[in-house]
Amino acid sequence: MKKLTTLKIKDHKLKEKKVPLQMLTCYDFQTAQMLNQTELDLILVGDSVGNVVLGYDTTIHVSLDEMKIFVAAVKRGAPDKFIVADLPFGSYSTVEQGLTSAVELFQYTGAESVKLEGAFPYQLELIERLTQIGIPVMGHIGLTPQSVHELGGYYVHGKDEDSANKLVQEALKLQKAGCFAVVLECVQKDIATLITNELSIPTIGIGAGDKTDGQVLVFNDLLQMGPKRPPKFCTPVANLFELKKELIEQYLTDKKKVKNVEEESSVH
């Protein structure tokens, strides 16, 4: 599969017969090597690494230095994929800070783009500045995990008219600022469809229905690699947590049996 570019991703919107763009998260070199051999379109190295790999309770604890390590590892493992790198909480609180952080992350890791949450005026200015200097930006609205405390929790967005209108306007502003695509997370299905129809750039949904131009899921949720059931919008294709546990338990049982046999043989 030929590697995507921002031009091809934006052009995806114009195709009459298209298969939705597929994006998965990835946080490590070996998983990236595997994904590099698949038909996957994009890889997101998300700040969800904080929850999934580092054990933080929210994504706000993830630092820029941590993101640099994980994004670079994924890029080394998947050189043929379009890599999107999350700018973590606190790394773009101002336009100037955001420019410095994005350049550092982009330059150090070799990622093809960065992603940031929100559509406040200073963030729109930051997106414009980043695209002007050659750093592609993916937007992200709806449920923005870095703002979970300010939002008051995790919930579906766009349920009422004011919230829906706000989302549509944010999406249009992100497009105008220069984003090549926008993630819609936990957005009411009909509003996600409306936004998708309004924009000329692709929308990538997560918990936003099936009418967006693409979908993104956390790799570890898709394979259920943790002990807890993934969010309801994700239907796991396997339960690797239980499978790996069973394999380890079988390995330990077999080793104990071998040891017991050896001890009995030495006695006799």
TrEMBL record:
Keywords: Cytoplasm, Magnesium, Metal-binding, Methyltransferase, Pantothenate biosynthesis, Transferase. It comes from the Bacteria. Its EC number is 2.1.2.11. Pfam families: Pantoate_transf. Its main location: cytoplasm. It catalyses: (6R)-5,10-methylene-5,6,7,8-tetrahydrofolate + 3-methyl-2-oxobutanoate + H2O = 2-dehydropantoate + (6S)-5,6,7,8-tetrahydrofolate. It is found in: Cytoplasm. GO terms for molecular function: 3-methyl-2-oxobutanoate hydroxymethyltransferase activity; magnesium ion binding; methyltransferase activity. Binds 1 Mg(2+) ion per subunit. Mg(2+) binds at residues 47, 86, 117. The keyword Methyltransferase applies. 3-methyl-2-oxobutanoate binds at residues 47-48, 86, 115. GO terms for biological process: methylation; pantothenate biosynthetic process. Belongs to the PanB family. NCBIfam families: panB, PRK00311.1. Homodecamer; pentamer of dimers. This is 3-methyl-2-oxobutanoate hydroxymethyltransferase.
